[in-house]
Every structure is written in C-alpha cells, then in structure tokens.
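Quick one - first record:
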Amino acid sequence: MKTYQLYQVDSFTTEKFKGNPAGVVINADGLSEQQMLSIARELNNSETAFVFSPQGSDHDLYIRYFTPTVEVPICGHATIATHYVRAMINNAVSSKVLHKVGIGILPVEIIKDENGYLIMMKQGEIQFSEPFIGQEHDNIVTALGLNQEDLDQRCPIQIVSTGHSKVMIGIKSRKKLDSLVPDMISLSRLSRLIGCNGYFVFTLDSEISGVLTHGRMFAPAIGIDEDPVTGNANGPLGAYLVKHDLVKYSEGSFAFKGEQGTAIGRSGIVEVQVKIEKGEPVEAQIGGRAVIVFQTSIEL
C-alpha cells in the first residue's frame, strides 16, 4: 500500500468553483494505468494529471493525463493545475521548469507576483488541416445545432493542433454561442470519421473589456460533453486568428485573453501568446492562474 497525495484545482481562475477543475496526483510513481484511469473516473473531472519522477536528465518531471475514459497526450488546464500545486507546495520563486508530456519535453514558466502564481506553458507544434468542405462541413454545423447563417464567413471550419487537435468553428453571435445545444451522439460519430475529438465554437463578439474571444468546447467522444475552459483550444485559436488575418498584431507577436465557460457557470480566462515569423504563427503559449479547492490522500 502507498499513500498518494491528491489535489482538486480550479484552473484559469482565482475563484473556487469557477474555471476548469482538474485532479492532480502529485506523487504518482507506482500507479498503474488502470489505477490512474480509476482515479480519473472517480474524480470525474475532464482531466486528471499524474506527476512522476523524471525519466532522464533532460526534464524535471513527467506528467500523464487521463480523462474518465482515456489517456490524452497533453491538457492545458491540468498542466496549469499541476504547476500551481507544485509552486504552492514548494513556495517557488519565479522560475522555468521542463516537463515531459505525451507530445515531448516543453518549458513552463512559473511567474510569482503580488497576485500569487501565473503559469505559462509552451504548447506543441502548430498544425493546420485543410478546411472542411461539402458534406463534412455541413454535418459538423448541423451536429452543433448551428445554421449556415450563424457562421462567421471569415472563419473556415478546420482542425488546428498544438498537441491535441480541435475543430475550430467561428460564429457571429455571443448570444448564439451561449444558447447552443449540440447533438452529442452525432458529434461522437463525426469524431471517429474526421479523427478529431474536440469541437471549439468561438466568437469575436465580445463586450468584456480586455477579452477578445468567447468559446465553448465539446468532446463527447472522449467522455467530455462540454469542457469549461480549454487551454488546448484557446492556444490553437490564437494561431488560427493569426493565420486567417482575423486580428491585428505587432511585429513578431500577438497576445489576447479568451473567456470560456459562462454557459455552464464556470467562467475562466486563458492568456494566449502567439509567436509570429514572416506572417505565420510558429509557436503558441497559454497561461492562467489557479486555486486549490481541496486536497486529500488515497491509499492503493
């Protein structure tokens, strides 16, 4: 038997019961895949992170991520939660950490300030698939409960990835965004056909000062009907906005804040930074704050 330390953390917020909840097992050495899956299913968050000792000298820690049904290669809000917990436990100063995740070894910046800790993480390689056309395009729109007139015509529907791909769907109206009722069975079926589990519906129709976008993310094929606040959607969104000339930016970089979660009562803010070279997005970082809701232990 071993005692494992478990934290429940709300990410992309400083208010408990807002943002996106994640589990963090801070000392996961010794856990099997089935045990990790069982813990993730018991907590029933969209993702739970499991922190292991490093596997080599080129990184500081190794993290694995599980939804209640499957392992995923990386998760933004669970990464923010993990490094926030480690910073709090260790009373960390501002520093950089290298973590190994399912898509490789990436840097994380721990920023200590008067408001606590801001965690900024580099995401993986930016990849764009060809935009959907024809019947596939129409099937996605219909499954989301949208009509063609709801779409922002500047925004092609396409898969974008920074390590964990999402379908980007731009619409005109914040009101429409908040009222969406997707067909989860149809979205799950489409996921198998298009090879992507997440659908990120967003709008530039924002009335909040300092916030550029609002979004909702649906991933029923991996057990997440709706994810409250999604780092692995807002990061690709930043790259997408630059790629399609939907925003103005200064030479070499673009930064914005994206809000998500209002429709399900868990609003949170993701800070996004995109590095740009020759007009093309080449690197995305996402970040946010967090708050520990509770901590406990489990013996297995």
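second record:
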Amino acid sequence: MSFKPIDESKEDFRLYLAKHGVLDALTKVIAKIQRLQPENPLEFLSANICTSLCLQETIKDLEMKIADANQEIHRLQKENERLKQQQMRFNHK
C-alpha cells in the first residue's frame, strides 16, 4: 500500500478554507441538498450560501450592538450608584 505525498499548496489552501469557515458552510449546504434534493441544486447552493453569509454578518452586527449596550448598561449602573450616594449625603445634611 503506497500513500501519495500531500501537495503542500493544496493542504495550505484546504487549511485556509477551513480557517475561514468555507468548508463547513459548503458541507452544510451540500448535506441540505442531499436531504432535500432541490430541482436546481446550483441555484439552491448559491441562495443558501448567500443566506448563510447574510446571517453571519447580521449576527456579528448584533453581537457588536449587544456589547455596546452592555457597556452602556455598566456605565449607567455606575452613574446610578453615584447619584444614589450623592442623594444619601444630601438627605443626611
């Protein structure tokens, strides 16, 4: 039994695709094609890859908005605590 040596440039390209989620995205859509057997698999592939990319962008955007909102909540909690302490000092005078 003989093994073919791995073509380094092909392996580098495979790693690049895997790193950026391309292989995973394609595998998921191809599995969906196998399961659903759409009339036009290429059109289905194109539509589903685009949908996947749009969803990823939307998720990233929402994650950034959540992080910003959490920072604002933290800032407002600090401000609220400061104002409560100021009010307590004012009421004790």
